[in-house]
PKD domain containing protein
Amino acid sequence: MLARTVPVLTSIVLLAPAGTAAAGTVAHSRVVSADPVNTTPHVLDGIVNAIALVDGTVVVGGSFSEVRDAGGSEVLERDNLFAYDLATGRILPDFSPYLDGPVNALAAGTGGTVYAGGAFTETDGVATRKLVRLRLSDGSPVTGFRAHAHGGSVTSLARRGSHLYLGGDFTHIGRLTRTALARVDAATGAVDPGFTIRPGSPRGSRVRVYALALGRDRLAVDGNFTTLDGHSRPQLGLVDIGASRAKVSSWRTDAYAAACMPAFPSYVRGLDFAPDGSYFVVVTSGGPGGPRRLCDSAARFETYARGETGPTWVNFTGGDSLYSVAVTGAAVYVGGHQRWLDNPGGSDSAGPGAVERPGIGAIHPVTGKALSWNPTRERGIGVKAFLAHRGGLLVGSDTIRLGREYHARIGMFPLP
């Protein structure tokens, strides 16, 4: 499995289609600073699950009730969602919608709007089952967008152009059957009949999509499933979205077919494409698994590899979960409640060669080894949200210490 390493990389990348297109996160030419900016506001309780950037406004979602400006003393009520100005850090006073449940996912919309997905059923008294499009000007729902999810929650969102992709453990969008994965019209919320990919055969519980990421012509999907449209795709698959009707890509891997600890029947978590879409990285939970199982690890895969493929590289934590990843070209940022990276021999311990990277770290995108960047964070549950943008890297979690400073649940590392 692990034999397909960097020497194979050149021939694999050449299989990618020519040209450039937006994919993954924003490209950086260097690693971000380890010193967080001082302007980000503070989330005073709960956890941050998702971050979106709409023009110059940062939208933050999760499960919380109170926020405060970085330099202020006034505590503001915000129910699972708030927004602030990226440049100044000031919380937007007029964006304060009431959502009656947690926000798990966000995606930037057009015309000063944002999409929020989660476990809520209403927004300011309006029925918005698990998915809503909101105006940043006043927090009100966009009435022309209707895409109610039923039977479960929304855990992941990704938008490109007129398409909005949804992942979760829902069973229906409106009256149409869509199991854990759907594509809707970004303006109206109407279910797209050209996208019917169905995850199936979960491990011991219901089907669930944990994460989505968009490449140039591929949608990466991971979660609690072993098949996509009947094709064997244990916990991870790619969907070809370049055709008129989406179809499961021939790309496949058995890297996540092996079981981790019984408490984690499905253990894939975050994923992200490189900015050029040529590769992507998956992070996992699962408990100490050893080098033959990709438990508690980050692994790189080549998007246009043919046939059954293994990871180009794997970096193990040695027994601690990773939940989030952001790939910028200069680095692969990983976050969770890990203590170490470069730790394939560890089992809740530091094995030979392990380096301390409490709660957050960066991996070299080619070698797969930990970079020297080590700002540290209070570990807690872990990082649940990254967002790379032109000015740096936003980080959302459940703890209050980031880069050895007080930054409650939201922070940003700037590009130097």
Notes: Confidence is low (pLDDT under 50) at residues 1-23.
